[in-house]
Amino acid sequence: MNEPQTTSQLASAISSEVMIEIVDMNKWYGQFHVLKDINLTVHKGERIVICGPSGSGKSTLIRCVNALEEHQEGQITVDGILLGKNLKNLDHIRTEVGMVFQNFNLFPHLTILENLTLGPVWVRKMSKAEATETAMMYLERVKIPEQADKYPGQMSGGQQQRVAIARSLCMSPKIMLFDEPTSALDPEMIKEVLDVMVDLADTGMTMIVVTHEMGFAKTIADEVIFMDEGDIVERNKPEAFFGNPEHERTQKFLSQIL
Amino acid sequence: MAIVTKEKTAERPAPISETSVFGWMRKNLFSSAFNTLLTLFTLYIVYLTLSGVFTWGIVDATFIADNRRECYDNSLTGACWAGVIAWFDNIFYGRYPRDEIWRINFGLFLLVLWMAPLWMAKVRGKVLIGATVVGLYPFLAGYLFAGGDKGLFMQVMISAAIVAFAINMGNMLTGLFKNVGLNTFLINLAGQSKASDKTRRNVLLGMFGIAFVAVYIWQMGWTAERVGWTRWGGLFLTLVISGIGIASSLPGGILLALGRRSKLPVVRILSTGFIEVFRSVPLITVLFMATTMFPLFMPEGFVLNKLVQVIIAVVLFNACYMAEIVRAGLQAIPKGQSEGAHTIGLGYWGTMGLIVMPQALKHMIPNIVGNIIGLLKDTTLVSIIGLFDLLGMLRSISKDVPWLGLHKEPLIFGAILFFIICFSMSKYSRHLEVKLSAGEKH
User: Fold this and answer.
1) Torsions phi, psi of A179, nearest 5?
2) Which helix (H) or strand (E) holds A243?
3) Mutating which of B343, B351, B364 best tests the A interface, going by the most A Cβ atoms within 10 A?
4) Smallest Cα–Cα separation from B357: which of B320, B383, B332, B390?
5) Does pLDDT of B391 surpass 60?
């Protein structure tokens, strides 16, 4: 997988270890067939960007990976654990997979610091002092340590999203999923969030990002996936994907947004 | 267009109508001739009403008399408060033995002391204090009020309650004066400056264990004289029934609401059925059912006293109303919140207890307090099935020979009492709402 990269791209550190393996996965909402025969393998350290028109199943796909949505057919294996009805497995996988949402989903009744330490203290059984230390380290990394005692409602959208990223990182996840992290933000704030994500990519985190930010995709993605109507239509290296899209649906999509 | 404002515009004070009382009155009460007329007319009506009430209730009223005849001799047009005053003990304590009334006062005093730390910002461990109020205080108070022989279970619970109370008070003092919890204080006293959470918990448990043995041995030495429930009455009985109702209907309501939203069909159907049945029946029917039909379903020889049956009925009835309030509150919390909680690995109970419920409860406060006020007033229904609660006592004044036919004054007095209690609860709930939403502006 290690091919020479263009200079604008981050160095990639993909190992042969498989983090996520999706085999023949199908999902329906009632009668509606959302995801059709999805096959996808993600290696450790790999960074994948998923794009596509709305309603194409991008979000649903990554929500299936940490079992926020149930799939009806096929298999999803995350970090060697098969997703299924076993609740213990579910809780375990959720602690290994971090997720960042379009609407941040911070807890409005808790301060930023409490938002960050909640998981480590209650799930990882860390001591409060230790959790606070970790939390401050990650707040440092997303560049808002001075906001630790504020409530989410007192911050801007960009700051909230950075807190949400830090909250996931506090659980020291092996995989990070991003569900349109910048779609609810003002243009000025998109950059500050993307910068944090680029930093994160730099550390070798396995990432799946659903986004419409094509510049960002070019910078960090090892591979770009295009989805339409529940199918994975095209999957390619970013330079090939943007420079020379093969499928006509991809061409049409790209011509509309670029 | 070029630059419009070169310098920053200076701030000016707001117009007088926005800031002073007179400005406000001119704007809102006397803005036009017609409005001025309307204001004066309304004030006149208010004056007429209030002056009538004032004359009857205070100026012409009789406060000291031995019977109703003396009231009439004193004034024909005034209220006869003497009857209400003569019955004060009955109104507040029912027919509780007069020598034992201190037990009721002492019990209420304990409750106030027990709960006082919950309102003190410096005191630690509020969750534990709250849990002991609901979990242990009722046993201590119950024995204090009822007395009699202590079974083994009661002995254990009473000792536990006394110890919890003592630790709570110690914790309050160290919190107020040293700004630390009691256990941390003891650890510091022993010369240790830092201790892990585990040590702190162990110190707390150790304190509890030692004190428990001491108190258990001490309490074997005495018993309180038995006072049968038939002698309970007045405001005391009203507060006992509604107090238990309030303390247990909220937890019950939360469980029922979670049951109704559960993914397990059996739990969901049972909870839904239970809620719908109780909500479709008037409370008075539930009370009659509890006292007349409930014993039929029980095994022979199994006798619950009427008071217990009434309390069970009140609790179940109100838990069902609470459940619907809680359900509405839960539905108001966006799904993203529980998804956010799931992604940091919290399970169902963690998500509910730490994320969803705290937010939902805050939205529910007005409705919960509304329901609690309703519950308090509804308990007057028990006078129909023969318990002498506050209303029952007030109505028996008119059947007492010296005060025969005295209806108006006792009922007005009851209305005032209920108003004071309910209005302060509603004011407090408003205050709580403002306080809890202080940090978060959405």
Assistant:
1) -105, 95
2) helix A238-243
3) B343
4) B332
5) yes
Chain A CB contacts of B334 below 8 Å: 103
Give the tens place of pLDDT for each residue, B253-304: 999 999 999 989 999 999 999 999 999 999 999 998 888 887 777 776 666 7
Asked if A98 and B343 count as a contact pair (C-beta separation under 8 A), the reply is yes
Nearest to B336 among A66, A101, A118 (CB): A101
The alpha carbon dihedral of A164, A169, A170, A173 has a sign of: positive
Catalogue the E-assigned strands of B273-324. Answer: none
Query: For residues B149 and B225, is the Cβ–Cβ distance under 8 A?
Result: no
**How far out from the chain centre does Cα A237 lie?**
18
Q: Which of B336, B347, B442 sits opposite A153 (nearest CB)?
A: B442
pLDDT above 80 for B191 = no
- Cα gap A15→A44, rounded to integer Å: 6
- Say how many C-beta atoms besides its own lie within 10 A of residue B411's C-beta: 16
Residue type, A171: M
- Look up residue B271 and give its two tokens: 């909870």
Tokens standing for B335? 């799904």
Nearest residue of chain B to residue A102 (CA atoms): B336
Residue B310's CB is within 10 A of a number of other CB atoms, namely: 25
pLDDT number for residue B222: 83
**From the CB of residue B162, how many other CB atoms can be counted at a distance below 10 Å?**
20
- Say which amino acid occupies B333: I
Spell out the domains of chain B, with CATH numbers in brackets: 33-86 (no CATH), 101-226 (no CATH), 235-395 (1.10.3720.10)
Tell me the three state secondary structure of residue A206: strand
The reply to whether the predicted model has a pTM over 0.95 is no
* In the block, residue with structure tokens 């990882």: A124
Q: pLDDT digits over B205-236, tens only?
A: 888 899 999 988 888 888 888 888 888 999 99
The span from the CA of A43 to the CA of B390, in Å, is: 73
Q: How confident is the model at residue B20, as a pLDDT?
A: 81
B342 contacts chain A (CB < 8 A): yes
Any CB–CB contact under 8 A between B194 and chain A?
A: no
Q: Render pLDDT for B8-30 as a digit per residue (tens, 0 to 9).
A: 888 888 877 777 888 888 888 88
Neighbour order of strands in the sheet with A223-228: A97-100, A175-179, A206-210, A47-51, A223-228, A231-236
Chain A residue with CA closest to B361: the answer is A109
By Cβ distance, the residue of B342, B355, B439 closest to A107 is: B355
Where does residue A5 fall: left (phi above 0), alpha (psi -120 to 50 degrees), or beta otherwise?
A: beta
The per-residue DSSP string of B221-250 comes to: T--PPP--GGGB-HHHHHHHHHHHHHHHHH
ipTM of the complex: 0.88
Distance from C-alpha of B24 to C-alpha of B20, rounded to nearest angstrom: 6
